[in-house]
Amino acid sequence: MGIGWTEILLILGVALVVLGPTRLPSLARTLGRAVREFRSSFAALEDDLEGRNAPTDPAKKADGRGSDESGSD
């Protein structure tokens, strides 16, 4: 039970009328960036919970898939 194409077109039509053609593209761009950031953060959280971002083998840190800590101050 998801949103169909008809509902999406109706929502976009209402948004176009309410926001106007000048503000709608910038709002869509901002919304797309927010969704991408949310998905990226959620994927990183899943990786942390599964233990993928905390390798115990030092060789895994060298290939760039280790933690974000560089060890330099």
Task: Provide structural commentary.
This protein is mainly alpha-helical and 73 residues long. It has helices at residues 5-19, 24-50, 58-62. The chain has a domain at 21-50.
The biggest beta sheet reads:
none
Terminal residue distance: 52 Å
Proportion of β residues? under 5%
Helical content band: 55-70%
| Spans where pLDDT lies below 50 across 5 or more residues | none
Report the principal-axis shape.
Answer: elongated
Question: Overall mean pLDDT score?
Answer: 80
Order of helices and strands: HHH
Number of helices, where a helix is a run of at least 4 consecutive DSSP H or I residues: 3
How many beta strands in the DSSP annotation?
0
- What class do helices, strands and sheet pairing give? mainly alpha
Q: Over the alpha carbons, how many angstroms does the gyration radius reach?
A: 20 Å
Question: How are the SSEs ordered, and which strands pair?
Answer:
Layout: H1 5-19, H2 24-50, H3 58-62
